[in-house]
Amino acid sequence: MDREAQFLELLKEGQGRWRAIARSYAGNDFEDLLQEILLQIWRSLATFRGESAGRTWCYRVAINTALNWKRSKRTRRQCLPTEEGYRSEQIPAAALSPDQVNEPPEAIHQLLAEQTPADRAILILLLDDVSYSEMAEILGASEGALRVRIHRLKERIRKRFEGRYDDI
Amino acid sequence: MTFEEIRKQWQSEVARPAATVDPQQLLADAQRRVGSLERGVFWRDVREIMAAVFVVCAFGAAWPLYRSSLVATLGVAVIVFSAPVIIYILLAANRRQSGEFATSVLDFSRQRLVWLDRQIRLLQTIFWWYVAPLSLGCMLVGWGLTPGRWWMFWQLAALCLGVAVLTVWLNRRAVRNELLPARRELVELIESLETTSGQ
Q1: What pTM, to 2 d.p., does this model score?
Q2: What are phi and psi of B2, to 5 degrees?
């Protein structure tokens, strides 16, 4: 499969997910981040060897881009010029604007926004039904330690929604 | 509401396609942006190299003006030799691996920390590799070309020192206010993931 076909295939499968990840990390600026994710997926496809599943690979690129995005936005002006300092023309907003009703509800994003960057990534993967082994592969963490961390994360969320959510 | 319900809500929203997005259009846009980005990086490198070439050529062409002064010649030599070194340092700082975003989050974060540390080190030492050689070179040229006219030399020296102090101060401030907080954030993320990875 050539690179373009691969990109379209990944786009078909992951478009909604990338948009949700972008919204989780960038809030109202999600279109900028979504463009960055699309750009990094296209660029990184040149080195994709199929050693991991397409979905796992895409999660890595999307989460790394999202985690890097905010830091880069803040430091871009200060660092010596890099590729990140260059932003080419934007994709027309109309091409990316999802119907607002398609976005995950505010409560979920509020919950995600309250987490540390690492916990936010874990929670997104958890909500997306990603297996522990795949999660470990994406994050570079051990499966056992992830289980412990997820247990603690769920506990915190349960306490956070105590009174509102009765069975987390 | 249960965690399962939250999960289902998330998944149903994620699975719903955006009505207005044409995949072919997104592909074309991504390709255009990557092309534009690569051209931008290429021309930035060209501009930096041309700037160094210009400095060397300009001082070479002005040889008749300063050849009678040993001090001015020494100043020109400092500038001409430091220009390629500065460009080399800038170009080396620009280089990055294209496939790095596809590594695990922990590995990516470690790579970013290495990159950020290099940026911090470069900005913290900007006096030695950028400001000092150019300022020293300019002052020597000024000294050599204005024999006996000390007030002119002191004006030039004051200007050079002012620009040097301002450049160093701006870079130190950027490191303190922007890069070090970003570094702390990155270290926290790495430590958090390393705890999870059992390291």
Answers
A1: 0.79
A2: -105, 170
